[in-house]
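Hi, here's the filled form for the chain we discussed.

Project: internal
Contact: R.S.
Residues: 768
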Amino acid sequence: MVKSKVKTEQKKQKTNEVKFTKKDAKLLPKFTLFFFNRPRLTAILWLAVLLFGIASYTTLLKREGFPSINLPIASISGTYIVEPSQVDSQVVKPISEIAKKEPGVKTVQGQSFSNSFNIIVQYEEGTNADEATANLEKSIKSSANIPPEANLSFAVPQFGVTGGSSQQIDMALSFYNENGQADTKLLTEKAEQYAKELKAKNLSLVKDVTVQSPFEEARNPLTGQTQTVQQTFDRFGERQADQNKFFNSVIIAIAGNDGFDVIKLDEQVRQAVSEVNAETKDGYQATISASFAPSIQNNISELQKVLLEGLLAVLIVGSLVIAVRASLITVVSMITVLGATLALLFLLGFTLNVITLFAIILSLSLIVDDTIIMVEAIDAQRRRQKDAKKAVEEATRKVSRAMIAATLTAALSFAPLVFVGGILGNFIRAIPITIISALLISLLVALVFIPLFAKFILLGKKQMGEENVHEIGASIEAKIAKFISSPMLWARKSMKRRLLVGLTAVFIGTSFIVAAGFIGRNVIFNIFPPSKDADSLQVTLTFAPGTDITQAQVVADKANKIVGDTLGSNFDTASYYGVADNQSAPLSVNLISYSKRDETSKQLIGQLENNFKGFSGAQVAVRQVDAGPPASPFTVRIDSENREQSFKLANDIANFLKDREITRPSGEKAQITEVSVSNPGSFARKDGALNVSVTASFNADDTTTLVTVTQAEVEKEFTPEKIRSYGLEPDSVVFDFGQESENQDSFATLAIAFPALLAVIYVLLASQ
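And the returned structure, exactly as it came back:
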């Protein structure tokens, strides 16, 4: 009876195999054989794809730091020589009210200082910022509510080498006197002369050379006289002769032509700067303080290194597990996939930047699957077949559907990232597109080109048949397969045994799920987790209320000395990039490469924080600069025209948060390290409403988790009834986490896409 049942099952299997063969012989195997039977055509196609890919990588793809995106933001800044309260009421408030009524405007944030102001207008996603800003400028200038003495400047910020800026900055030069004898006004005049000399070089890749002047002209409404006011300052630091020195400096901005290549622009400008420096006298010179070229070159070197290591690993492992010839096919196939992916990126209009390079490196571990599956299937069939064509046909028939299912499943896993919205989505969209493209191309390479490679490398007459196959790892592979399959073979003749094995499998699977949930509770959540080490730091000084521009420079110089002395030989260069003012000064610090340092960036941050304890004149925050946007502080905003009561509530919230321990859902604790309240000497508005804010930072990096937990604690302490006791409405207290809030909103689409993705994957797998 048992034998007859086994025979019946075998007949059913054979019948099913025949049906499968007849059904699929017209589809994927036929597609593969079309190219297999035309080796010359296929070889020409392969060479064309490979050469196009190489050309794209070496020449066609433009190099740039980050992908060019349309920032839906407008900046309105300027001078008005009166007290901050008058700047707020006469300029910022009416402009905010006008801007909020404009179509497509999402939020309006304004800050008023003594003699100056800054307003940021954020538009809805998809709005053309240039057109919207032009219309906004017309509306504001046609209004009779704005004092004619107010000097207004409208700009659409661009993401450049120094961060967001009102002008295009693709490279930055720090101009200074190495003898340290020039004041800022004279230095600015000399910088203008230097910029003219650089322009006279008529560099083919340079569109413009401009000086970021720290001075602005404004008319005093009381006297009617025009005054020149210094609004910003800059310092440039570099290591010279084993010493870290800082110089008073002015930034010269370089804007590249449309479609320029970052590396070529860098080379051209460096050559020109070297020539102009040689002609400049009296100790004045310029140094390139910001360029994307070094990071792009490092990323390209890293890509080539990872690719070489990956190909070598595939070659070694493939030789042991499959065969030496088969591993060669896998290596050639991976190179083909990468070349075709780069060619497709060029055709789609992408550039070779930090984001696409990261995606290509990430895809290396994914594209190997289809190639190995196909190569192994052909290798297995050459033992059973004497005819190369038959071996390819059988191999394709057996694995093609599984390959398609696996590839599409992997591709669909990255698909939701395409729909991430906001500024964040514009930046990272190249990642899923690159990876999905690489996966689909790897499938095509497996079906089209691998059989061609196998025809000449693996399927020769002397390599066909069991007697001609010699695998180094065959015996080990057989033992592992026997061990894994032994429970199923043991249980196949008994219903009780099958039930026991099935329940055991369910138990093991459930255990893994439970363990994953337990471990997941202890994994900190952060949309942009910080790296373990980095080559850049930022030291931000927030000056005390009432600090003028001269006092701010004195405080900044003291801070610069601490930075230089603390970092020592780990220091490379530093600059404020011309954005330091009497409110704050963010110093961008470049360290020597982590490969040449004994101390990590986090250790250096700890040393800086320790040495800045007790620092007078400014609050100091030190952070590591990573690929993602900077972590936004925890912020509580109080929207009310009653500034006195708003400050009272803000100070109480600050006292509640100061040095407070925050308990994560996992039970682990973090601590709030710095708490600050808005400067009473300045005014802030959001969407026209006057506000006071409290900000706090943490001694940990999992910002996404910590801001959520801290919000819950503040809401628990400051109930609606308690807020009313300050004479304020409960809805006047708003939690605003800046970019962190926007990041969370952007990723919210994943919560919608994930269930749909699982359903599509289930249907896909079920259809197989």
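Let me know if anything looks off before we file it.
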